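Researcher: Here's the sequence for the chain we discussed earlier.
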Amino acid sequence: MCLPCELIGFFFTFIITFMKIVIVGAGFTGVQLAKCLINEKNQVVIIDNDEDTIRHANNQLDCTSICSDGNNLEILESAGIAKADALVCVTESDEVNMITCSLVDAVYPDILKIARVRNYAYYINTAKAEKKHANDFGGKHRPLYGINYMIHPDVEAANAIVRAVENGAIGSVITFGNSELEITRMSVEAGSVFDGITLKDIRTKTDIKFLVTYVEKENETSLARGDTTINAGDTLGVLISKNDVPEVLKLCGAEQNVMRKVALVGAGRIGTIVAEKLLPSRTSGISKFFLNFSTKHSQDFVIIDSNDELTKAASEKFPDARVMCADASDENFLREEGITNFDLAICVTHNHEMNMVLAAYLESLGVKQSVSLVSSAAFATIAEKIGVDVPIPLRDSIVDSIMSHLRGKSVKEIHTVSNGKLQIVECEITSGSMVVGKSLREISNPGTFLVLMTKQAAMDNYKIADGNTRLYSGDQVVLISEAENTKKVLSYFAGNTE
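Model: Thanks. This is the structure I predict for it:
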C-alpha cells in the first residue's frame, strides 16, 4: 500500500536540516565517516597535518580539506568551528583527539564533540568517573575532557564478536538492549524448505514468528518485499527471538552448533575483552555464553598467542582457561593440542589479514565455526568468500557508533549492514513527526523503508511490527532503509534529528 497523499508530499519535500561537521584526522575512519556525511549533503571539513594523507583524502572526498594541525584553535576557527554542529577527532593520537575536544569545549561548549580513544585506561577510567558522578556531569559540569562521546574501537569490536558467539557464530548479530529480539544473518542452504518460495509464502512453512528484513543475492542487496523469491545461496537478515534461532536455522538448512570447545587466538586488548565477557567470572558466576552453550569451562576454553608477555598476563587473568604461547598457524601444534576438533575459533590478533586467513585455515583443518576480526566491510566480504563464518569489520563498527551519536538525541543506534548498503536504525518517534497516530499500513512505502519493531513508551520490550501497528509520540522504533535514504527516513519518523 502506498503513502496517503498528504504524506507523499511530506516525505519527499520535508526540509532536512543539514549539519556542518569538522573532522580532525583523515585516515581510513575519518574518510569513511566523511563519505557517509557527504552522501547526505552535510557540509564537511576534514583536517590532517600529513600532506600525503590529506592529499589522498582530497582525491576521494568532495569537501574542504586542510593540511594543518587540528589541535590549533586558529586553524579550527578558519575551518568554521564556530558555526559547526559537531567536532569528530579520529587522529592516530589519543592525546591529540582529547586535547582538541577539550580546547574546543572551552571556547565553544555547545558543539557536539566526539573522540576516538584507543588507550583502554583512558576509556575505562573516564567511564567509571562519569558513572560515579553521573548527576554532576548531567547538570552544571562540562563532560570530562570536554568530550560528549568517547569511542573505543576495541570495545566496539569485542561487543560485536561476543554477540555473534553467543548466537552460535552462525552470522553477524544485531541486538537491541535487553530485548529478546535480534537481527541475525542466515544463509539459505540447498535443500532448505525456503528454497524457491517467495517471502509472502514463508509463513506457511512454520508457526514461528519472525520477519525477513533484507535479502542478499550474489552482489545485490534489497529490502524485503513479499514478491521476493528466496533461493539457495541467498543470505537473509532475519528479525527473530533469540530462542527461536535454532529452529529457523534448521529451516534454512543449517544447524546451530553447541560451543563446548572454543579457541581464542589473540591475547591482546580485544582478545582480553572478549575473554572477560565469555569466561565465567569468579564473582558473578557462569557467563551467559556458558549458560547457553555449555556447563564446562576449564580446559575447553583455550587462549593462544605467540607473545610471551601477553600469554603470561592472560594466564594470570583467566585461571579457568588453558593459555598457550604458540604459533596458531602451526598445524603440528594444532593437532597435538586437539584444536582441530574444536567447535569454534575466534581470531582477534592485531594482524587483521592474518585473522581471516587463519580462521579459514582452522576450518579447513576441522574447526566447525569461525569468527574473525577484519579491518573493514570490504575485507569482511573477502573473508566470507574464503570460508569465514562471521567476519567482524573493526573500522565500520567505529563509523556506525559515531554516526549514531551525530544523528541527535532521538536516535539511539545505527547499524550498517550488507557492506554499507543498508542501515538499521533505532530511534524515538517525536511529537513533530507526521507518523504520529498512523498505522504502518497507512505509511507503508515498500522499497524505501521497513519498520521492523516497535516499543510503546509504557512498555519494556520490543515487538515485531505488522500493518496494524500504530505509532505514537514517545514510541521507540527499529527501521531499515537504504543507507543513502537514512537521513530522509529519520526526518520522516523522528522529525528534526539534529
